[in-house]
Amino acid sequence: MPNIHVLTAGYVGRGTASTVSLIESADSLVVVDPGMVASRALILDPIDRLGFSVEDVTDVVVSHHHPDHTINIALFPRAKVHDHWAIYENDVWTSRSAEGFDVASGITLWETPGHTPQDITTVVETDDGVAAFTHLWWHSEGPEHDPFATDAAALSEGRSRVLGVATLIVPGHGEPFVPNSQTAR
Questions:
Q1: Angstrom distances, CA of residue 57 to CA of 28, 74, 76
Q2: Domain 3-170: homologous superfamily in CATH
Q3: Tens digit of pLDDT for each residue in 74-105?
Q4: Do residues 176 and 168 touch, judged by C-beta distance below 8 A?
Q5: How far is 99 from 101, CA to CA, in rounded Å?
């Protein structure tokens, strides 16, 4: 089963930073949302402490194409990049639907539009349950109504879908949290 690591928890407010995560599976090392951070060391140092290098990263997943979630993709020169409709590797663009696509064993992409029409969630089966890396929530408090959502109904539908399986949510701009009956839907 894959192991998950939050490299840096994001935030919104005076500044904006993406939550950046690393997923280890038997055959892959996946970074999710390598976006804006106060310093690239907040991404690179934890990877180094875990015993990996940027060259070890096999895949990068971006939940959506806002710069605060994509700006540091180039830190991982050997990685394939996954988004809502393709895989990008060097100069090759391979079109595919994200829905149900397995990045690696135990790591699956779901289409979860709402914040943008192109949002995806990375669903990871771990020994402790199912973790969802997603921008359906900015942080543990929601917000209940995403002020930038392009489709509030789709956002709510995506939240319900994720809450149906997730035992841990890694939101776009905050610490991981365990969903409960008070989690914004």
A1: 7, 11, 6
A2: Ribonuclease Z/Hydroxyacylglutathione hydrolase-like (3.60.15.10)
A3: 999 999 999 999 999 999 999 999 999 999 99
A4: yes
A5: 6
